[in-house]
Amino acid sequence: MGELCQAEIAIIGAGPAGMAAAIRLTQAGIRPVVFDMGNAPGGQIYRQLDVPVIGETLSGTDYYRGRDLLGDFSRADIDYRPRSQVWWGQCESDGVSLGVVDAAGVSRWHVKRMLLATGSMERSWPFPGWQLPGSMQAGAAQILFKEGGLVPEASPVLAGSGPLLYLLAWQYCRAGCAPQRILDTTPASRYRLPLRYLRGAWQGRHYLVKGARMMLALKRAGVPIHHGVEALEATGKHRVERVHYYWRGHWHHQDTSLVLTHFGVVPEPQLGRAIGIPYDWHEGQQCFLPERNRSLQARTRVWVAGDGGGIGGALNAEREGRLAALSMLTIPTNDVADRKRERRRLEQRRATDLAVRPLLEAMFRLPSHWLSEQPDTTLVCRCECVSLGELRRAIEQGAAGPNQLKAFTRCGMGPCQGRECGESVTRLLSTVQALPPQEIGYYQVRPPVQALSLGELAATATDA
Amino acid sequence: MFQRIAESSVIDGVDIQLDGEICRVPITLSVAAAVLFIKGDADYRRHVDGHARAPFCLMGCCHECLITIDGEPNRRGCLVSVAEGMSIERQLGGSQDDG
Ligand SMILES: Cc1cc2nc3c(=O)[nH]c(=O)nc-3n(C[C@H](O)[C@H](O)[C@H](O)COP(=O)(O)OP(=O)(O)OC[C@H]3O[C@@H](n4cnc5c(N)ncnc54)[C@H](O)[C@@H]3O)c2cc1C
After folding, report:
1. pLDDT tens digits for B14-25?
2. Candidates A53, A151, A416; nearest CB to B62
3. In this predicted complex, what is the ipTM?
4. A window 207-246, beta carbon within 8 A of B
5. Domains of chain B
6. pLDDT for residue B95
7. How far is CA A416 from each of CA A201, A307, A382, rounded to the nearest angstrom?
8. Cβ A140–B44 below 8 Å, yes or no?
9. Which strand (E) or helix (H) includes residue A75?
10. Its Gene Ontology molecular function terms (chain B) (predicted)?
11. Tens digits of per-residue pLDDT, A50-90?
12. Ligand 1 centroid vs A311 CA: distance in angstroms?
């Protein structure tokens, strides 16, 4: 794999968590290496903010808030490596070994400590027709908007649940391409939940006011919002031509060429799992989260910060990055008391910011039986084209866990390596076997966690 | 199926070759975004089962945007930025992505 590169600290991911951690480390005299798959720093929320394409009136203010962080990151002395994918990792007694692939090829790294700041991905949520061209995730649409100022030519239908769905709808309205309608799977009654979570509601008033303003703006723009949509389907010969939705006791139909869905975000699991961090099911967030202690440490030499450790939003990710950096600093210095104070302040702010989460989780809670209520023909594994019916039959024939189901059906064996079907499989087994997801578990994740080309694979094989 | 909004800032363009045809696209786009911009999603890629597929997540997870870039097949088009003179070929054969 070529020569062995060394560093004191490696950070994987240059979103708010990774950037904040790197900046804090440089302040303590350490020059971390930062690997990120993207072309520029920023992660998901601050994508393209280094050379912004859309203005603040279209993006909303949260986007431009990231400019200070990006500025500090670009000025600090950091070994920042864009277009670099970490495809392999292994904990060792004296550090962590990493496999990295970039334009120059594959390289092998040994670092003393590592921070995973790999962020989140959109939750995969199967419904009939979700694999057709014309069905995309709302985050994908937002990426097109940030990267190129691209918006749909024909008015789309937005469906699903959660803040990102409304953010995109609001951005599209501002850009003059209001959605045809919003199919919100959240029942209307849930939007009254803040009355029951007063503390969380007060701490999170910023989010709630923003959300309420967006909904009002959408209503003013004449975008119909249907709360409490219970089922969804996309149909068309070679691409999406219509969406069908079950609402208020009936199926409704709407012609459209584009349906953009969003069902929340979950931690990107691949690298954390591949290096052996244990993951636990979180009831509130309805997904697996890595186990970490108060210092955000997950293994002896590994820390996890940001949405990759649990969904907390961009500001929380930044704070976690800084907290993790403080905890990673081992060299004793004479500013111990200052650091303690800094740490306490960060922990307090973080607690305040996270106080709204139980409310948001309760508001946007997804129906856990959704998948088991879909028709048998619904694809669960998009890569290997494994349908819900095939999975059900394999379970009946004795496939008792995710790995067995994989071996029986090839579910999760395609190029995405189970990212898009992993938690669906856990959910399905949990419903069918009436066991909690924690007991069902998840696929065994093995490297490479990022796809390598044949040439790259050959290069790793010659001297591995 | 996607268009640029008038309010977006002026960005430089680059010339790429999409299935042999020269097209000018904004330099900030990924390969996947560029193909959606030029051709739409109907013929982005053909899957192993013969059906049409198109990018779904655009952030490196779903692998639906696999495409041939400068002769190398099965690249994730969403992770690669367009560059002057880049050659892009859509994988419309239907059996290539099972790697
Ligand atoms: C598609 C999408 C859009 C979003 N849009 C918004 C928004 O508009 N507003 C908002 O408030 N929140 C948004 N969020 C939530 C937002 O992601 C978080 O609040 C915040 O970005 C989390 O920061 P982070 O640093 O933890 O992770 P991220 O910002 O996700 O950064 C993680 C980085 O790690 C990189 N990475 C992951 N794995 C590897 C690897 N193996 N090798 C190399 N690099 C790797 C990724 O490419 C990415 O750049 C969005 C989330 C998603 C998934």
Report:
1. 999 999 999 999
2. A416
3. 0.95
4. 238-239
5. 14-89 (3.10.20.30)
6. 54
7. 38, 20, 9
8. no
9. helix A67-75
10. iron-sulfur cluster binding; oxidoreductase activity
11. 999 999 989 988 999 999 999 999 999 999 999 999 999 99
12. 10
